[in-house]
Amino acid sequence: MTRHFLEVDDLSPGELSTxxxxxxxxxxxxxxxxxxxxxxxxxxxxxTRNATEMAVVQLGGHPVSLRAEEVDVDVREPAADAARVLxxxxxxxxxxxxxxxxxxxxxxAATVPVVNLLSDDSHPCQALADLLSLRQVWGELQGRTVxxxxxxxxxxxxxxxxxxLAGMRAHVATPSGFSLQAAxxxxxRALGGEVTVTTSAEEAADGADALYTDVWAxxxxxxxxxxxxxxxxxxxxxxxxxxxxxxxxxxxxxxPAHRGEEVSAGVLDSPASAVWQQAxxxxxxxxxxxxxxxxxxxx
Length: 299
Ligand code: CP
Ligand code: NVA
What we know:
The protein is of the alpha/beta class. The protein is 40% helix and 14% strand.
C-alpha cells in the first residue's frame, strides 16, 4: 500500500517515533540511488525546498523541483494526470500548494508516496522537525508542554496534532478571530492530546517548556498584514512572555521570522532560541520520513 504523508497523524505514535529515530540515523542507506523525487511549489520556499532536495541527495537520489510558473498543476493539466505521470519517473512526489484538496487529489492518483510540503491547511514536515528539535533538547517529549502563541494557522495545526501523538500538552493562544480551527483541536484531543485554547498569550506561556510562534500573515495573506499587525498586538513572544514559561524554556519558530512582530529580536537571537537547529532538522526529518515511506518499514 502506498503511504502518503499529508498530516502528521498519517503516522501512528510508534511510526512517528520511528521517523524521528531514522532522522538521526548515521550513514543512512542510499535507498534513492538512481531514483528521483518530484517537488512542486506553488508558493516560495527557502527551507523546505533546500532541506528536501538535500535529504534526497543524501539518500542517493535526484530531486526535480518545479515552480508553478513552470508547471501549474490543475491549469496546464489536472492534478491527477500530473500525479500519474510523475509516479512513473519518481519514487516520491512532494508538493507545496494553496488548497489542501489538491494534495488529496495528487495522492489519490499517485502510485508513489505524496508528501505535504505545506498547504493552507497544514505543515506536517515542519512538525516532524519541531518534535525532533525538542527531543534533542529534552531527551524525551512525553509530558512536556509546548505553547503556540500567534495565528491559528497551518503550522499551528500540525504542531498541535504532532504534540498529541508525542504525548505532549499543547497550549494555543490566538487573538479572537484567528483561532485554530475547532476540527484540529478535536482531532488532537481524539488522539489523546491535552489541548488548552485561550486568547491570552500570558496564560498560554505560563509554565510551558517551549514557546512557539509563526508569522502573523502567511503566504497568500500579505494584503491583510496591516490589519493583522493590529489584531496581534500583545502576541509578540518577547522576554516578558519567555519569563512566564519554565526556566530554561526553548523558543521555536518555523521561519521565516519577522523580528519585532511575532518575536522580539532579543528572543529570536537568544540562547533559548533553537530555531537554527530546528531549520537544520527540516533536512534530517525529511530524510527520516523518506527512509520510513520508501524503506523497509514501508513493506
Ligand atoms: N519553515 C518553512 O517551511 O520555510 P520555507 O517556507 O522557507 O520552506
Ligand atoms: N504559516 C506560514 C508558514 C511558512 C513556513 C505560511 O503558510 O506562510
